[in-house]
Structure formats: structure tokens, C-alpha cells
Amino acid sequence: MDTILIKGLRAQARVGVPLAERRRxxxxxxxxxxxxxxxxxxxxxxxxxxxxxxxxxxxxLKIVKSRPFKLVEAMAETIAREILARYAVKExxxxxxxxxxxxADSVGVKITRP
Length: 114
What we know:
Layout: E1 2-13, H1 19-22, E2 26-36, H2 39-44, H3 53-66, H4 72-86, E3 91-98, E4 107-113
Antiparallel strand pairs: 1-2, 2-3, 3-4
Helix pairs in contact: 3-4
């Protein structure tokens, strides 16, 4: 399976278990891997045989801004479900990082959904 990569998509989101954390926007970084067959796109050099990563990025940003999330797990699951429903991909891998724990560089999750 081939892969389209989106790395370091920056967003502002309301995410956290405490209400105080959800009240403020915080920086998150999203990495995405889309699994699909890219042979036809590579042979024919036509965007309609691949996935438009700019459109995927816009959709992800809409999702994270659509509502507050208590858990980055729920945010990742929502993104995966929407990408699988909207685009012709066989697998989605998502990593979301946030920067809310002072003693850590970042905290987050990584999920894979077929």
C-alpha cells in the first residue's frame, strides 16, 4: 500500500478534560498517513487518481474547530471516521499532539483505522 503524508498540520483547538482547558484554544499538531494505491496517479500524473491533500487538510481543520473535545482520542477518532467516509483511502493513521503538560514536550495519541 502506498502512502500520502501530511506532517505537522498546525491547528488551534479546544481540547482537554478540565473545563478550563477546553475554554481556551491551544496549539495541536496533527500528522496523517493515508494508505491507498497511487500507481495510477503516478503513471497518469492526474490529481483525480489520488487524494487532494489540501482538501484533506481543510477538512481536518474544520473538524477540530467544529466543537470542543474532552479527549484527543475522540478528536482522532472523529478525524479518521470522516476521512475514511469522504475519501477513497483504505487506511488512515493519525497522530495528534498537544502541549498542555509542562514537564513534557508534548502529549497525544496515535491511531490506525482500516
